[in-house]
Write a structure and sequence with these properties.
Layout: H1 25-37, E1 63-64, E2 67-71, E3 78-82, E4 87-88, H2 102-124
Antiparallel strand pairs: 1-4, 2-3
């Protein structure tokens, strides 16, 4: 049997221009950016997802800073040196507890408990104050390179040999 050829059509789709007065693609792209710059954030009308403006962004009330304390060389006072950005716990979402593995649900429940405990403590604090949390640890993580955790399919003990096709 001969291989099938893809269907072709002699009908040419009409060229679409965003604005006939703008001839270059660069000019059209500039016009699109200018038209969407004033659109509301996450606009459903344009289908674009945009960052909220500074006015739309809520400044967090509670956050966790990671850093260390050092003595000021001249005054001897403690100075906390933190990472440039804190971890916002105001809007952090709780983990869902819908995993089929009970252990995963227990770990996620403990994560949610820690988040709520931090929020409760922050709510009880006076504005502008901070407290050192000696019971927390800081972990530095690096993502596993893609494919590094995978096994060769022939060496995987969980693949049944009977599940192979006869051609293999």
């Amino acid at each position: 049997m001969a291989p099938r050829k893809p269907a072709t059509s002699n009908v040419q789709a009409p060229a679409r221009e965003l604005n006939p007065g703008l001839s270059s693609l660069a000019a059209q792209a500039r016009a699109r950016r200018a038209n969407t710059a004033s659109a509301p954030a996450n606009s459903m009308a344009t289908g674009l997802i945009t960052e909220p403006t500074k006015e739309e962004r809520k400044m967090p009330d509670f956050w966790v800073n990671v850093g260390y304390t050092i003595k000021h060389p001249e005054t001897g006072e403690d100075v906390f040196i933190s990472l440039p950005v804190g971890i916002n716990i105001d809007t952090m979402q709780e983990r869902k507890l819908n995993a089929s593995d009970p252990l995963v649900n227990q770990i996620n429940s403990a994560r949610n408990h820690l988040l709520n405990m931090l929020r409760d403590e922050a709510t009880a604090m006076d504005a502008g104050t901070s407290v050192v949390l000696d019971f927390l640890e800081v972990q530095l993580l690096r993502r596993t390179e893609e494919g590094k955790g995978l096994l060769d399919a022939n060496a995987n003990p969980f693949i049944l040999p009977a599940l192979k096709f006869e051609d293999e």
